Amino acid sequence: MAPRKRPAPGLPTRKQILDFIQNSPVPAGKREIAREFGLKGQEKIQLKALLKDMAEEGLIDGKRTAFHKMGGLPKVTVLRVVDIDEGEAIAVPDTWQPEDATPPPRIRLIEKGRGSALKKGDRVLSRTEESGSGWRAFPMKKLALRSEQLLGVVEIDKAGKAWLAPVDKRIRNSSAISDLGNAEAGELVLAEPTGRSARASVKVTEVLGEPLAPKAFSLIAIHKHGIPNRFTEETLAEAERVAKMPLSPEKREDLRHLPIVAIDPSDARDHDDAIWAEPDGEGGFNALVAIADVSFYVRPGGDIDREARRRGNSVYFPDRVVPMLPEVLSADVCSLRAGEDRAAMACHLKVDSEGKVTAWRFTRAIVRIHEVIAYEDAQARIDSGEAGADLQNFWACWKALATAREKRDPLELELPERRVKLDEQGRIAEIAIRERLDAHRVVEDFMIAANVAAAKALEAKVAPVVYRVHETPSREKLVALKDYLATFGKNLAMGQVITPGLFNRMLKDIAEESEKALIMEAVLRSQTQAYYGPRNEGHFGLALGSYAHFTSPIRRYADLLVHRALVDAYHLEQPRPHGDIPATSGLSERDRDDLGRVSEAISQAERRAMEAERETIDRYVAAWLSSRVGEVFDTRITGVQKFGFFATIVGLGGDGLVPVSTLGDERFAYDEKAHVLSGEDSGTTYAIGQILRLRLAEANPLTGALKFELESGSGRIEPRGRPLPLKKRGNHLAGKRGRPANIRHQGRRKK
Q1: What residues contact residue 710 under an 8 Å CB cut-off, 6+ apart?
Q2: Where does this polypeptide localize (predicted)?
Q3: Percent of the chain with pLDDT over 90
Q4: Confidence (pTM)
């Protein structure tokens, strides 16, 4: 093979660098690029700046040790087989880092001979190339499997054998531990399988501590769902630098004279929105929604931005928050604190007497928040008649917005939110349903108005928009709802236009509370899941044609993208404040060209966060209830299956199973369409929404699982397995009334 011709001396062009990165037989970092093009001294410094510019422009991505063409792959890399399609192995990069928020490319593995010798899960060192039909790769060497880590608690049985009891309630069996490391009985650990079979033992890789210690439940969720919770030193250093950037009031709209107020939960960790309103003298209002100007500090291409894209959103647990941004930004410089100058994106609104937003404009501003008020305090001032003019103006403007909301007729479902309150030691002080106040509705309607204005403002400039999409229920779900309603003698005509108001009227006409709860559950099940996307499909639940998230850029990456789009569309860019900080605070070219990639990634991150938050609350509820096993509670049935039904404690939450085997000696028939279990002899029925009294039979704080039984006690649940031998014995989370946790593991292996 003829030696490759050396390039001419001097700084290479962007195209030359991209060609070298793509064709290099070894990972191409700054050192390899400098060597390839014969760069020395000052030229290496210029190369560093050029590579940084190329990263900001979306041409390349990677760390200091190796770069790759954006959207491309290294010439040689490790792939993981994820599917076998008609005998051909399909793989993805094994260590794909979603820093650019793109899904991993699916790569065809070209093997010698017929059929695939590879299996799902195999790891292969491969040579990759891009063809007209996509990526393909040629296996070079099969590698050892990368084991999936398991989260559980160490148990020691009577024979002295160690077991890993899973904390995921979907996993029923414990695993034998062959290597305990430094772990002791009762400790929460990470482990990995020692073999490939389902019965392979595991070895402990990391000890996380005591499972019922304060903050353990959120730690379980973080590890289980792979939520990034540590910032790199580079990201923290960049955050400290950008936090010191001057605001330059002369280049911003100065709104410090306005008595802008932030109304937030009493336990809020950050404050990214605040409001103001006053009568306009014509029966309407001039209103302002001020939002933290995160885009000024977090710019495309920087370390903070890459980490924020990877996280997608902040994750909130009762005992901690895993923020999207480093604390110096999320809890300090970007947070709209009272009495301090802050950078804000201001949404100015004109609201007429009927609550219609007739005009809007967006500016970059400097604000000084007059006061931060808890929802409860704001409501108390209004109710007592002691509210000042500011709050009275907010409420008056809100009543106009509420009038427009009623005409719009968005979906009105009662979705109670559980709130876990901890004491100073991290123990549970109280679990209750968060009260829904008018103060919540005030802020909510101001935020909705600003979100709509942001979407329409971008549409007016034909600019890219990350929409918050909630699609109309699918025909399949509507048919299922129609069949269910028919069991109540109600008809859902499929030929009519389905609107939120249709469901609202249906629920309003039901006088019987138990029946109303049943129908409400069914309507909720018929709804689609909201997501982010660049195509406008409307927001069914809010009855809005255009909707985007604009009001929470501290905790949602989608909002940050909307801010950047507004910066571009309305020429709100500000000069580069420092030479080592990316110049633009608008959209990167990569995002401008394809918002679909990042929208899908942050939608997935949102679902991950919601599941982690819900599971953690379930664990806290189970810990709270673990000292009350045997008590009888008022419950509501939330789901029915042929093997039993699920119920939740009224006013507290926490779903628990009532197995059909405990309902008595008679046989129960399952009506799938009606979601009902019916006793063949007695005619007793169990249906979604039904209220009944049940006895708590089991509460497992580690999995969040509950089990109930009938109050009569017929068919009592006999606890199986052994109580978990906690290292220090006792429920450290249950507060003053806590006793040792009553924990049962179902399906435990026995000697």
Answers
A1: 658, 662, 663, 664, 694, 695
A2: Cytoplasm
A3: 44
A4: 0.76
| Nearest 10 degrees: Cα torsion 378, 382, 388, 391 | 60
**Alpha-carbon torsion, ordered 85, 87, 93, 95, to 10 deg:** 100
CA distance 547 to 467: 6
> Which residues in the chain show pLDDT less than 70?
1-9, 25-27, 56-59, 61-66, 68-73, 75, 86-87, 95-103, 113-116, 130-134, 144-148, 196-198, 576-579, 713-751
Q: Are 671 and 678 in contact (CB under 8 A)?
A: yes
Q: Rounded to an integer, what distance in angstroms lies between the CA atom of residue 686 and that of residue 717?
A: 18
668-671, strands of its sheet edge to edge? 668-671, 676-679, 685-687
pLDDT digits (tens, 9 = 90+) for 187-225: 998 888 887 666 788 999 888 888 888 788 998 899 888
Pair of tokens at residue 712: 């009569």
Note the pLDDT tens digit of each residue in 388-424.
999 999 999 999 999 999 999 999 987 777 888 888 8
Report how far residue 274's alpha carbon sits from residue 291's, in angstroms, rounded to the nearest whole number. 7
Superfamily, domain 76-143: Nucleic acid-binding proteins (2.40.50.140)
The reply to whether domains 76-143 and 629-718 share a CATH topology is yes
d(CA 396, CA 487) in angstroms, rounded, equals 44
Question: CB count, 10 Å around CB of 468?
Answer: 25
Strands 253-254 and 357-368, sheet pairing: parallel
Residue-range domain boundaries for the chain: 14-69, 76-143, 233-468+536-612, 472-527, 629-718
Say how many Å lie between the first and final Cα of the chain, rounded. 65
**629-718 falls under which CATH superfamily?**
Nucleic acid-binding proteins (2.40.50.140)
Q: Between helices 595-625 and 303-311, what is the axis angle to 10°?
A: 60
Residues facing residue 585 across a β-bridge: none
